């Protein structure tokens, strides 16, 4: 047996070499319909996922958290001014700081992974519509526990939206509520508690990133259902699909319920802001996709450059174009609440929604497939 | 002709071969069941989903609540009994039934290697794998045989050879051979694997893997059958399966195939393995070397076994070709795709939005799939037409029970196949409520826009 088996080695070797080398002719003609550009045989088309993770963490995620906390600090300071001097002018300044912070939140909302996920950050900070009755009864009671999930609808930015914009019809009337000798302090304290709650939670998450999670995130640079890239791309698409597309537009449009519901828009009491918040979220998505460092024009390794490394410029271009079309369509709209209240069906908003929708399949089907991203936490066997 | 068949059927071989196969197969199955449970898959795949996708005709097979655990216990215990060869016939029947029931509960989890286990355990029902080195044989001299009919061992070899060759034939298509797809998509994502990771981005590697894989599948059974090349072929079996095990998330499959390939060795090798085991467990091996040959006694029973096994192989031989009776590209429609050893052949993904329309008022809304399906189910559903139809019918029932009337269901779907840009998959103007599941071609699948040549 031993004596005989050597003669097969040359045969297998020849077959193997033949198998290796027989790609010569076929690779010369790139097939456009497959969308794959054939790389030069001499270069490896692997992509350093670790470098992309580092760019995400160091140039996008952490700077975004830091910028948000800076904006929140400004909100706190304007609140301090208002607390001591409850004038209309100070209310307007406080509202402006709230707008800035709320817009800044749109930059970090999508990072629901690791510490943010553990803390359920998005749900605790931006669940809308807010529950006005619950807020009022909390204020009347004077005690409330923001750790309870039952209080999810009475805190975060939507609660501030009500307290700073919806508590009365005019600024004069609002100031009257805050200066009411019997109940005014209750409202002001509540605003303070909501702001502090946001600050505590985001600070916890930011610190966790600084103290260890950043390393965990970047080092987990493999390719599996539990690897950082796979998990985060899932989270990223989930944000786009559920929170940007559905939450900010689809649900108020009644896409999933057949009834238009203007009361479900984000920033309901300050409706001119809803579209802007959407666009900020969209910008954050675009910048993340393109790997643009926060607050700059510079870009590093990203999903876009990953697609390029895989020879899929076509897909990168289509995604960028689609996100631009979505932006143009949204920019042309009246505030969502106005669109929904004046038109039924809100045709223009529906067609804008379709533009937003069109990118979902590009992310979820084409991009995920091109990158071999494992679908959400499914680590069942394949074959 | 009859003479040749009779002569072949009367040929004998060492029962030790079957004993080794039984023990190793049993151990693999015990390990599989434990692993499945340990990974929490009983909950996540069978208990947590609200809805399960059924095989056509097996809609009555469903997870049975907490009793599902009992089913796995039963399956695991049967596998232990098979391993030690105690009440073998009963054990292998229970194993076949419980394992197959588990697989039929939800087709989301369909894997060729699960199907392989079902099919193999069915075949084992008709093979006296307990004739040698088993508790049955140890405790009952009447069940103790040193030799078994040669066809018993050959049947297992034939099944394995069919798996390999059909898997190889399935690779003879233009995507696999000319474009190195889907390996060109999958391999570059494995760059982080030590040592070989760096190579995974080179195009020549994608082609080499593709061509070698096809060649391996098509030829390995012959190199295993041919004595002079056997050890060398086995070395390739081990290398090939370990390699795929490292690169892809395929669980137990590589080990099952490696262990199964041992069946190709001669009796001498298996006697040495049995001797090794006998020494460890202090079992008197010579007890089994009694020179007696197993022979199915009542002639009627013997004939029945011949008929069943022959039918089994005829079906196995024909089933992979059933796709030829359907129009359109197999990879796209997946009509006739399953149960045909089409392993790791395509990178396919899809997206499906279901639109529930009131046929009278025209009012409509979209379904949030995550309300009904797990991410895994949604993924599998979105590119397989039979899943899409079954889910649509489930949605109809669900929304009817909520008081909706005149329900029409349309699906807007996109699918990508082997890196092609996604295109529309299901005709969005077809009301799926009006379509029935059957073995007929599904006319509402939009034909594939490209062409894949080959088998």
From TrEMBL, chain A:
Residues 61-357 form the Imelysin-like domain. Keywords: Signal. It is found in: Cell envelope. The keyword Signal applies. One of its GO terms (cellular component) is cell envelope. Residues 1-24 form the signal peptide. Coiled coil: none annotated. Pfam families: Peptidase_M75. This is Imelysin-like domain-containing protein.
Automatic annotation (TrEMBL), chain B:
GO terms for cellular component: endomembrane system. It is found in: Endomembrane system. Keywords: Disulfide bond, Lyase, Membrane, Transmembrane, Transmembrane helix. Residues 10-269 form the HTTM-like domain. It comes from the Bacteria. GO terms for molecular function: gamma-glutamyl carboxylase activity; vitamin binding. It is a multi-pass membrane protein. Pfam families: HTTM, VKGC_lumenal_dom. The chain crosses the membrane at residues 20-38, 67-84, 91-108, 114-135, 155-172, 204-224, 231-250, 256-274, 304-324. This is Vitamin K-dependent gamma-glutamyl carboxylase. It comes from Croceitalea dokdonensis DOKDO 023.
């Amino acid at each position: 047996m031993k004596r005989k088996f050597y003669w097969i080695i040359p045969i297998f070797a020849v077959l193997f070499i033949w198998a290796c080398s027989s790609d010569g002719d076929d690779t010369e003609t790139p097939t456009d319909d497959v969308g794959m550009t054939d790389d030069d045989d001499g270069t490896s088309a692997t992509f350093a996922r670790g470098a992309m993770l580092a760019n995400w963490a160091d140039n996008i995620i952490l700077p975004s958290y830091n910028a948000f906390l800076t904006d929140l600090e400004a909100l706190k300071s304007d609140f301090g001014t208002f607390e001591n001097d409850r004038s209309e002018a100070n209310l307007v300044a406080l509202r402006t700081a709230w707008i800035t912070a709320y817009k800044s939140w749109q930059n970090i909302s999508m990072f629901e992974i690791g510490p943010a996920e553990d803390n359920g950050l998005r749900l605790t900070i931006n669940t809308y519509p807010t529950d006005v009755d619950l807020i009022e009864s909390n204020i009347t009671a004077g005690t409330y526990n923001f750790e309870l999930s039952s209080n999810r609808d009475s805190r975060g930015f939507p609660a501030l939206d009500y307290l700073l914009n919806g508590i009365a019809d005019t600024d004069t009337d609002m100031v009257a509520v805050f200066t009411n000798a019997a109940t005014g302090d209750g409202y002001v304290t509540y605003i303070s508690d909501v702001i502090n709650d946001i600050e505590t939670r985001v600070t916890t998450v930011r610190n966790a990133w600084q103290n260890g999670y950043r390393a965990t995130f970047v080092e987990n640079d493999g390719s599996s259902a539990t690897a950082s890239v796979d998990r985060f791309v899932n989270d990223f698409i989930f944000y786009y699909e559920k929170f940007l597309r559905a939450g900010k537009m689809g649900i108020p449009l009644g896409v999933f319920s057949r009834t238009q519901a203007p009361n479900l828009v984000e920033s309901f009491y300050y409706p001119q802001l809803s579209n802007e918040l959407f666009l900020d979220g969209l910008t954050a998505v675009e910048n993340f996709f393109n790997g643009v460092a926060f607050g700059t024009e510079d870009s590093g390794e990203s999903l876009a450059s990953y697609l390029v490394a895989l020879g899929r410029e076509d897909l990168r271009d289509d995604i960028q174009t689609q996100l631009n079309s979505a932006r143009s369509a949204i920019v042309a709209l009246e505030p969502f609440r106005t669109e929904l209240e004046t038109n039924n069906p809100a045709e223009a908003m529906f067609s804008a929604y379709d533009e937003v929708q069109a990118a979902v399949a590009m992310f979820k089907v084409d991009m995920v497939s091109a990158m071999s991203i494992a679908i959400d936490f499914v680590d069942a066997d394949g074959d | 002709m009859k003479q040749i068949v009779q002569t072949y059927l009367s040929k004998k071989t060492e029962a030790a071969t079957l004993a080794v196969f039984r023990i190793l197969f049993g151990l693999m199955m015990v390990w599989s069941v434990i692993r499945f449970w340990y990974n929490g898959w009983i909950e996540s795949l069978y208990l947590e989903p609200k809805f399960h996708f059924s095989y056509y005709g097996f809609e009555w097979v469903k997870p049975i609540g907490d009793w599902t655990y009992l089913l796995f216990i039963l399956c695991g215990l049967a596998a232990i009994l098979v391993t030690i060869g105690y009440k073998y016939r009963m054990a292998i029947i229970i194993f076949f039934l419980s394992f197959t029931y588990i697989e039929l509960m939800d087709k989301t989890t369909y894997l060729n290697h699960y199907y392989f286990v079902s099919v193999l355990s069915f075949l084992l029902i008709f093979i006296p794998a307990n004739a040698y080195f088993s508790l049955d044989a140890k405790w009952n001299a009447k069940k103790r045989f040193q030799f078994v009919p040669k066809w018993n061992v050959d049947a297992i070899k034939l099944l394995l050879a069919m798996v390999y060759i059909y898997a190889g034939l399935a690779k003879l298509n233009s995507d696999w051979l000319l474009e190195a797809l889907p390996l060109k998509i999958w391999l570059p994502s494995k760059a982080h694997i030590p040592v070989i990771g760096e190579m995974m981005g080179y195009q020549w590697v994608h082609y080499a893997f593709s061509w070698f894989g096809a060649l391996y599948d098509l030829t390995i059974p012959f190199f295993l059958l041919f004595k002079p090349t056997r050890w060398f072929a086995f070395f390739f079996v081990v290398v090939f399966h370990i390699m795929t095990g490292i690169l892809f998330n395929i669980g137990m499959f590589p080990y099952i195939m490696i262990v199964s390939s041992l069946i190709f060795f001669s009796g001498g090798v298996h006697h040495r393995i049995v001797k090794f085991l006998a020494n460890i467990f202090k079992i008197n091996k010579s007890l089994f070397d009694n020179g007696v040959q197993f022979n199915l006694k009542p002639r009627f029973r013997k004939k029945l076994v011949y008929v069943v096994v022959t039918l089994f192989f005829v079906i196995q031989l024909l089933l992979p070709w059933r796709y030829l009776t359907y129009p359109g590209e197999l990879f796209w429609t997946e009509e006739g795709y399953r149960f045909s050893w089409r392993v790791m052949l395509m990178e396919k993904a899809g997206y499906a939005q279901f639109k529930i329309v009131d046929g009278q008022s025209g009012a409509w809304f979209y379904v949030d799939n995550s309300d009904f399906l797990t991410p895994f189910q949604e993924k599998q559903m979105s590119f397989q037409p039979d899943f899409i139809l079954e889910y649509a019918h489930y949605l109809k029932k669900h929304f009817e029970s909520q008081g909706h009337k005149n329900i029409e269901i349309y699906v807007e779907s996109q699918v990508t196949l082997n890196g092609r840009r996604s295109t529309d998959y299901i005709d969005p103007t077809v009301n799926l409520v009006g379509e029935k599941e059957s073995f007929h071609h599904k006319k509402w699948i939009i034909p594939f826009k490209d062409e894949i040549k080959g088998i």
